[in-house]
UniProtKB/TrEMBL annotation:
Transmembrane segments: none annotated. It comes from the Bacteria. Residues 66-135 form the Cupin type-2 domain. This is Cupin domain-containing protein.
Length: 148
């Protein structure tokens, strides 16, 4: 009976250790779930210039790009025939729209870029600018077209 009691104690100890280990492993996961949040960065149906935009016809294609613009760097004139959502991760970008003027975007700004409107950007700060660009395009339609 002592062997059985000893075996029972060992089995109980093993089960208890396994239970506690599982509880410890679950605690960080539960804590992580509590820390998840949703912050809407942008919810709009128009561009920064107040234009309505449409998705191009054809098979949909999403392209995500990380643009890095060095200090004093310039993005030449171009336009977008597809909707483009931009998010400034770092730095400050100034974008010139010939008929409107210059709009400054800073870290944390989210926007839908002007649609089919020529514009040029330049790094308006001292550090590197990083921009997350998400194009909602279509097969065979360029995301960006060079020139005015």
């Amino acid at each position: 009976m002592n062997r059985l009691s000893g075996y029972g104690r060992v089995l109980f100890a093993c089960v208890l250790v396994a239970f506690l280990a599982r509880a410890d492993a679950a605690a960080p996961a539960a804590a992580a779930k509590k820390e998840i949040g949703v912050e809407i960065l942008l919810d709009t149906d128009e561009t920064v210039l107040g234009q309505e935009f449409e998705y191009p016809a054809g098979r949909a294609r999403i392209t995500t790009v990380l643009l890095t613009v060095p200090p004093h760097g310039t993005i030449p004139f171009h336009h977008h025939p597809v909707p483009l959502m931009g998010y400034i991760i770092q730095g400050e970008l100034a974008v010139e729209y010939p008929d409107v003027g210059v709009i400054h975007y800073r870290a944390g700004d989210a926007f839908v870029e002007a649609f089919d409107t020529p514009h040029s950007g330049f790094n308006a700060g001292r550090g590197v600018v990083k921009i997350l660009a998400v194009y909602a395009g279509a097969e065979g339609v360029p995301n960006s077209v060079d020139g005015e």
